[in-house]
Amino acid sequence: MHNVLLCRSNVLPKPGTYVFWFSITGTVVNLDETTKLPDLASRLETAYEASRNVWWQLGRAMASEPSANCCHAPTGGVYGSDFGLMLAWSRIIDELKNSPETILVVCDDAWMFRHLANFAHVQAGKAPNLFWRRIKMIARGFAARCQVTLRAIQAVISLSHHQQKFKNNAPAMLVYGHPESRIDGHDAYFGDFLNHAPKLQRLLHVDCPTNRALELSAHETTLSLHGWGRVSDAFRLLFEYWRPSKQLCAGRYGWIIRRAAALENSGGGPAMVRWQMLCQRRFIQISQPNVIFWPWENFAWERDLCRAANTTSTRTAGYQHTAIGPHQINYAAFSNPDGGHSLPDQIIANGPAYKAELLNWGHDKDRVVIGGSWRITERPPCHYNKNGPVFVPLSGQLSIARQQIKCAQSLAEHGISVLVKEHPMYPVKFTETKALKRTAIGLFNQPSIRAMVFTTGTSGLEALLGGIPAYRLLLDDHISVNILPSGIIIPSSGIEQIKSTLSTPTQPPLIRWDELFSTPEPAFWHNLVMTYTASSGNS
Fold first, then answer.
1. Which tens digits make up the pLDDT trace of 508-531?
2. How far is residue 389's CA from residue 387's CA, in Å, rounded to a whole number?
3. Per-residue pLDDT reduced to its tens digit, 65-85
4. Which residue pairs, CB below 8 angstroms and at least 24 apart, start in 92-97?
5. Mean pLDDT confidence for 283-298
6. Which of 61, 126, 384, 438 sits at a 20 to 30 Å CA gap from 422?
7. Cα 180 to Cα 190: distance, rounded to the nearest angstrom
8. Gap between the Cα atoms of 323 and 458, Å rounded
């Protein structure tokens, strides 16, 4: 029995042949909204969370192949890959085999279409063209790798002198080139620690552009990892792409693994990650730092850093980069094919709640310690006002931010005052109205806030810590990445239901900052550097 019809958006069946419909993979279709599958956003989230074990299992298999160890999908990186979203759609459509109604699924994605067409209860139309799509993505990927190669060569030429400036056997703090880091040594990830730790040097990740690296290196102990790169290695990046094995491509999820590889290969991401790996391996080999610590997320380059350090006397300490919630499965140890060999010697949690989560996700209790939160600090309550505006902080993912704008516009049309704060690096154009305004002022400095409606990022957590009701917006074709710690449950709803959700205000759960986080203890961080320095010096 075929109770699921799978079609492209330009070849749709007649309305009477199905009861409900929905579209996936960003496919745009003009169909009757009243017959759209009910509660799609909540179904998608439930399926997404139920698919994480599959992603971990497949991640281990993918990460075991050498060409995949510079990609996001094998690590469970939810911001860098939509592989989990494809698993969620697969789960939903698999569950529809028990539906008494006929459901139309509209999909223009060539790989996902072929994946779903293999389901026994799916009646599929003609699949989207794959050949020309692949040709375009291959060409785009090669062009992107050329750009990465040229930028790497330019960076090596401009920053090669940084290698000589590093004091061998010194401790290193590896960080991204964050806009809020400064030339006086203040760092967006580790505060003023650099200026108070003897011998410590700040090392900039290769994602920091050359001009920004030169600017920050005005600080005497700030250097760029590009300084350890070689022009000859840069040319290797032209041929850096993920080539999944026949075994992976032949399995149940073969088509979406091919899709993940094609998407990652269509950009410069794998080449950039490989460049980071090449530079950091030469850094460890030549400069032999006693200890290296960084904002840790268990991504591909970080796993490689740990493997490289394990062949030397360099110790590694990964500091929990941000808040961890049920969707950020990259933090788990379950997708690491070589277990602890690709994990830091020490994993430093932001606080007690996050240490507990890391232990639940497979990390050794002897490896995880609490080091405190540098970025999310304890602050006075926000200015709550039940008659104030709704605060909507936009996601850094543009497709999600556009849907947040759609939600904000809907609320404003119903007379609800809304303040929209754009992501500083990813602005989105929209027309302001009497009820819908743009703001550059952060949540804690707003004079009056009624509630927050958020999707991704830590803004929802910050609202709860500030005593503001927070509502997580669920989307029909994306995942609002949930970073709230285990046990914290807040209202969640789709765009269509958010107005009624806001009409019955709920008291936010009482969350004490010190239940989640702790204050960084200077002694802990100095011991991190000095203990390893001493132990290395005595070896």
1. 777 889 999 999 999 999 999 876
2. 7
3. 999 999 999 999 998 999 999
4. 92/43, 92/44, 92/47, 93/4, 93/119, 93/122, 94/119, 95/47, 96/3, 96/4, 96/121, 97/3, 97/4, 97/121
5. 96
6. 384
7. 11
8. 7
Q: Which residue, 316, 295, 321, 267, is CA-closest to 204?
A: 295
Token pair of 134 as six digits: 């692949």
* Other CB atoms within 10 Å distance of the CB of residue 193: 21
Across the strands, what pairs with 346? Answer: 317
Q: Which of 249, 276, 256, 12 is nearest to 117 (CA)?
A: 256
Query: Which amino acid does the sequence have at 128?
Result: P
Buried b (16+ CB within 10 A) or exposed e, 270-287: bbbbbbbbbbbbbbbeeb
pLDDT band at 1 (very low <50, low <70, confident <90, very high): low
Does position 456 have pLDDT exceeding 50, yes or no?
Answer: yes
Question: Across 101-237, where does the E strand assignment appear?
Answer: 103-107, 122-124, 172-175, 201-204, 222-224
Count of residues for the chain?
Answer: 539
> Rounded to whole angstroms, how far apart are CA atoms 78 and 502?
28
Amino acid making up residue 279: C
Is residue 269 within 8 A of residue 304, CB to CB? The reply is no
Tens digit of pLDDT for each residue in 5-51? 999 999 999 988 999 999 999 999 999 999 999 999 999 999 999 99
User: Can you tell me whether residue 78 is helix, strand or coil?
Assistant: coil
**The dihedral formed by the CA atoms of 510, 515, 521 and 524, expressed in degrees to the nearest 10:** -160
Tokens 């702790």 correspond to what residue?
Answer: 518
- What are the φ and ψ backbone dihedral angles of 438, each rounded to 5 degrees? -90, 140
User: How many Cβ atoms from other residues are within 10 Å of residue 356's Cβ?
Assistant: 15
Q: Which residue has the tokens 């090392």?
A: 203
311 by Cβ neighbours in 10 Å (0-12 / 13-18 / 19+) ranks as exposed
Q: Which residues contact 208 (CB under 8 A, 6 or more apart)?
A: 176, 177, 216, 224
Closest CA to 471 of 435, 509, 436: 509
Dihedral (CA of 191, 192, 198, 203) sign: positive
Whether residue 335 contacts residue 68, with contact meaning beta carbons closer than 8 Å, is answered with no
Q: Hey, is 156 helix, strand or coil?
A: helix
Q: What's the pLDDT at 534?
A: 43
Which single residue is written with the structure tokens 């745009």?
28
User: Please, what sign has the CA dihedral across residues 398, 403, 409, 415?
Assistant: negative
| H or E stretch at 280 | helix 269-287
CA 67 – CA 62 distance, rounded (Å)? 9
Amino acid 109 reads D
Q: Pull the structure tokens for residue 19.
A: 């009861």
- Cβ partners under 8 Å of residue 80, min gap 6: 72, 73, 269, 299
